[in-house]
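A.,

Following up on our hallway conversation. Structure tokens first:
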């Protein structure tokens, strides 16, 4: 049979158009796919046309260096004579078959199975290697690694040490499964929703660190959704609520000075100071006397949440008359401690964020239950309250308010150099305006002083009925 060869591009139209006369054979090749051949021939007896896909290659003989030609039938083109029931392949299917046969494309099923077996072997090896690595070793190594990379590692320690079961610390970390972590955070979220979310957020990088050290094969936290839905807080106290809350805190202070049961004086002063200056709770509670410079409070960069390193810029807060009166009162009652708001339980330590949150939450829930305020609030809501009243009632520009509460201004470095000196005087005016508004709210709450005094008496009496000892009397 006479054979003719030609080079072309394999397309459906070109293949369908190629034909051959009886007794002749045409072979088409495409330089893009070396070794792939379309053989077209016509039978002399019945005149049927056959188009067959071939893969031709050269193999080296085992007993010598000479190359031996070889070939494989991949299939036939549709509507072709197919005496041996070869696969029916169009152009694209033939190209894919050529890729597999020539080694340019691995079989997907075989490749997936090989990857799965490799992963299983790797997981088993890592699990065997991690048998000596306990959760305690992973946790301590991670905290050492994070010591100089986060500002307050004690928050990570508190979240993990307070909520992780004690027996986990001596277990091999490779044995801790995903369902155990899920059950832990979801049970915690039933009582304390945000604590469950925070614990999940802090366990995720912990186990990722274990992967980078080669101690565990995978992160068991992956795939666990947050157990609680986080809602954006919008609580803002009204002018009447601000005056009432301030009056109740003053009544609690008076009871404490008489030796009666009340909220501790450092927490009262911390909450009132927070309302006066509108800074973040952590910055207020950790304030030291060395940061007070005349009429200004200079917050060091290591205490500022938005400053990434200690070489950043400090934040300067102007202290109005109310804020200065609180500091003078603190100076009279405590003189040796470096902290402005010293903890009543732990000497030489500041009040903690947890203690202030619990006190304010308890107080606000009782006020809401008595319909004295609309709904409960948190210490951070006082910061939002100051910002909102400055804009709505004091006619303070938003850029000034953002500078007062130390929110990052979206400006480039050169622009900030020009804006910053002008904002300093505007911020001073803003704090004076807020101080004046705050004094007005307090004066307007005088007619409700009787209701406030009744609430304080009832709340302290209910505490005694539940078996709590009076202030200064130890529990039996």
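Then the amino acids I'd put at each of the 476 positions:
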């Amino acid at each position: 049979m006479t054979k003719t060869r030609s080079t072309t591009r394999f397309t459906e139209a070109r293949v369908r158009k190629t034909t051959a006369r009886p007794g002749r054979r045409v072979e088409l090749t495409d330089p893009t796919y070396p070794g792939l051949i379309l053989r077209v021939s016509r039978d002399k007896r019945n005149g049927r046309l056959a188009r067959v896909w071939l893969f031709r290659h050269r193999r080296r003989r085992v007993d010598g260096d000479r190359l031996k030609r070889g070939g494989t039938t991949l299939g036939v083109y549709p509507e072709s004579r197919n005496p041996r029931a070869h696969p029916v392949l169009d152009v694209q299917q033939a190209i894919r078959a050529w890729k597999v046969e020539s080694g340019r494309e691995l079989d997907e099923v075989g490749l997936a199975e090989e990857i799965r077996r490799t992963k299983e072997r790797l997981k088993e090896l890592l699990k065997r290697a991690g048998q000596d690595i306990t959760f305690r070793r992973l946790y301590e190594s991670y905290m050492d690694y994070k010591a100089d990379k986060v500002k307050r590692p004690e928050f990570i320690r508190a979240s993990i040490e307070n909520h992780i079961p004690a027996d986990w610390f001596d277990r091999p970390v490779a044995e801790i499964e995903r369902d155990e972590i899920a059950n832990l955070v979801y049970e915690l979220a039933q009582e304390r929703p945000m604590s469950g979310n925070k614990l999940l957020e802090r366990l995720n990088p912990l186990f990722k660190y274990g992967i980078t050290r080669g101690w565990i094969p995978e992160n068991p936290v992956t795939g666990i959704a947050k157990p609680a839905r986080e809602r954006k807080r919008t609580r803002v106290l009204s002018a009447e609520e601000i005056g009432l809350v301030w009056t109740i805190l003053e009544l609690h202070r008076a009871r404490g000075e008489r030796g009666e049961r009340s909220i501790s004086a450092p927490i009262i002063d911390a909450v009132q100071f927070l309302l006066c200056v509108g800074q973040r709770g952590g910055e207020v509670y950790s304030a030291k006397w060395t940061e007070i410079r005349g009429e200004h409070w200079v917050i060091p960069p290591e205490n500022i949440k938005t400053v990434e390193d200690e070489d950043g810029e400090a934040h300067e807060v102007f202290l109005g008359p109310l804020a200065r009166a609180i500091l003078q009162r603190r100076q009279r009652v405590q003189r040796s401690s470096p902290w402005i708001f010293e903890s009543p339980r732990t000497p030489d330590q500041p009040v903690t964020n947890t203690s202030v949150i619990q006190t304010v939450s308890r107080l606000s829930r009782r006020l809401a239950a008595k319909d004295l305020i609309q709904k409960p609030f948190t210490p951070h809501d006082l910061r939002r309250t100051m910002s909102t009243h400055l804009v709505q009632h004091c006619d303070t520009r938003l850029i000034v308010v953002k500078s007062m509460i130390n929110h990052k201004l979206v400006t480039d470095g050169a622009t900030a150099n020009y804006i910053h000196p002008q904002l300093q005087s505007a911020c001073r005016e803003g704090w004076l305006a807020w101080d004046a508004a705050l004094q007005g709210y307090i004066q307007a709450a005088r007619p409700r002083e009787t209701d406030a005094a009744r609430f304080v008496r009832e709340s302290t009496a209910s505490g005694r009925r539940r078996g709590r000892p009076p202030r200064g009397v130890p529990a039996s």
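The beta strands are 2-7, 24-29, 36-42, 49-60, 67-76, 292-293, 296-299, 315-318. Curious whether your intuition agrees with the design.

B.
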